[in-house]
Amino acid sequence: xxxxxxxxxxxxxxxxxxxxxxxxxxxxxxxxxxxxxxxxxxxxxxxxxxxxxxxxxxxxxxxxxxxxxxxxxxxxxxxxxxxxxxxxxxxxxxxxxxxxxxxxxxxxxxxxxxxxxxxxxxxxxxxxxxxxxxxxxxxxxxxxxxxxxxxxxxxxxxxxxxxxxxxxxxxxxxxxxxxxxxxxxxxxxxxxxxxxxxxxxxxxxxxxxxxxxxxxxxxxxxxxxxxxxxxxxxxxxxxxxxxxxxxxxxxxxxxxxxxxxxxxxxxxxxxxxxxxxxxxxxxxxxxxxxxxxxxxxxxxxxxxxxxxxxxxxxxxxxxxxxxxxxxxxxxxxxxxxxxxxxxxxxxxxxxxxxxxxxxxxxxxxxxxxxxxxxxxxxxxxxxxxxxxxxxxxxxxxxxxxxxxxxxxxxxxxxxxxxxxxxxxxxxxxxxxxxxxxxxxxxxxxxxx
Length: 448
Prior knowledge:
Triger factor/SurA peptide-binding fold; Chitinase A, domain 3; 3 domains; four-stranded antiparallel sheet; 15 helices; 13 strands; 47% helix; disordered N terminus; disordered C terminus
């Protein structure tokens, strides 16, 4: 299999692992059997339609690729049955609620989503729950199979040399950034006024007003548009102060004012399920006055002067004076949440950061500017451009980690392919006549 085709299969596999909701217009029938598991026509059509709706290129053999992916998925489920692999119902429920919240956000409301799928919210939840459970089980089996797969430097070099020139990834401009953060100090009066406002909202809920409506109108949280609902979460996933307050509530009850790392909240318990809870909240933060903002800017201006005069290194200044605990310990170095690396492509940066650094030279400092932190709190930042790499084809010197990841992915694919072929020899597989042409060259499946 050539490298382009292999990379295409990697991407397709990633897409198909995201199970979608069944389309009701499909007339269902069994089109394949793997061990004790059936493959339905709707299984194929729902993935096919999802890919089409995403505007992706629809190749003539797309349905075959999807069909073969289901064969492999059911082989994993067969092994899971042998090994008695199970997943926590609480984890399935948490994943289901998370995806459901995402879908509702995309449609705009629960009602619009129900209209689109011509299903009730309960049926949609059942579809999601079943798909997520299967995905989690097959992921567990797959991880067991490839757990011991690793690569050596020699493997990485061999993989890189085997790549066709036009299949070597093209790396856009990447930067490493560090920051010093300063928060404007809030006056006692600002905090008092905020608490008074939250107490007023709490009283309105207790007098019969709808908490969700008030969250839409007044909450500063990202989930305000979802009536303040955050979805089912485990206690350990939440801010400690928030979780302690939430877990003390019964369904429908509203907390007193809670101060967390995100700001000040009132919380309403919606439902508890085992170790998880679904809550909604109204979040507010005090408003800093112009004097407090100016003081924060002045602190950063002073640090910039000392760094540019070589009186302080930026790393030391960040460790000593930055008020962001997550980055100060690393000398202000920012970590890319998408890749967990310290590099960012320019299009991965917030708009304001992009415009600040695009014309900066390495080791330049930005002017202090207004921003928000990872908890959406107002702050001021001083950015330092640590490194910049120009656009290029990946190479072993500059991009070893990326190539190592690709080599490892390729090796895992080889291990999984060999496992599938061995598993097919001992597993009953029946393909519908309409899909017998989907057997790839070199693949032998039982047609009993």
